[in-house]
């Protein structure tokens, strides 16, 4: 949970366009894009575009509100498109908390009872 924001983290590079991503939705504040190592079909990540928050503890509440609204909107779109039986919303903070990319993000992981989970 400690340290400074690294402007060369993978999601910062995606936001700069330095590395490609498959975008599913964006506005001026929030980006939703496909996870490259999906835990299930339709695994999407949601990030803030203009905040250098590494985790949930650092994000400005007004920005968090926008991210959560986009999370709900995207979850509804995923539900409509893929008709999963469930949706897991995941969010990790700090290396010991399971975080690997240190730019705050939420995961949307569609779930089906008859499909094996990779993560
Ligand atoms: P964390 O464990 O930090 O919550 O999850 C980071 C997520 O970012 C992982 O699910 C991982 O698959 C995803 N990821 C890592 N590198 C890339 C990348 O270059 N592009 C995309 N789209 N996702 C990535």
Description:
The structure is a single chain. This protein has helices at residues 10-16, 61-82, and strands at residues 23-26, 30-34, 44-48, 86-90, 105-111. The protein is of the alpha+beta class and 119 residues long. The chain has a single domain, classed as HIT family, subunit A (2-Layer Sandwich), CATH 3.30.428. It has a 5-stranded antiparallel beta sheet, with helices on one face. A hairpin with a 3-residue loop joins β1 (23-26) and β2 (30-34). The relative contact order is 0.23. Guanosine-5'-monophosphate is lined by residues 10, 19, 21, 33-37, 92, 98-101. This is HIT family protein. Residues 10-118 form the HIT domain. It comes from Brevundimonas fontaquae. A motif (Histidine triad motif) lies at residues 103-107.
Overall shape: it is globular
Bound molecules: guanosine-5'-monophosphate
Count of beta strands: 5
Please trace the helix and strand order, writing H or E for each element.
HEEEHEE
Global structural class: alpha+beta
- Residues in helix, %: 10-25%
- Can you summarize the main beta sheet? 5 strands, antiparallel
Task: Report the C-alpha radius of gyration, rounded.
Answer: 14 Å
CATH fold naming = HIT family, subunit A
Count, helices: 2
Query: What portion of the residues fall into strands of 2 or more residues?
Result: 15-25%
The CA-CA distance between the termini, in Å, is 23 Å
Report the CATH architecture.
2-Layer Sandwich
| Total count of domains | 1
Low-confidence runs:
none
Which strand order do you get reading across the main beta sheet? 1-2-3-5-4
Motif (Histidine triad motif): 103-107
Protein name: HIT family protein
Domain HIT: 10-118
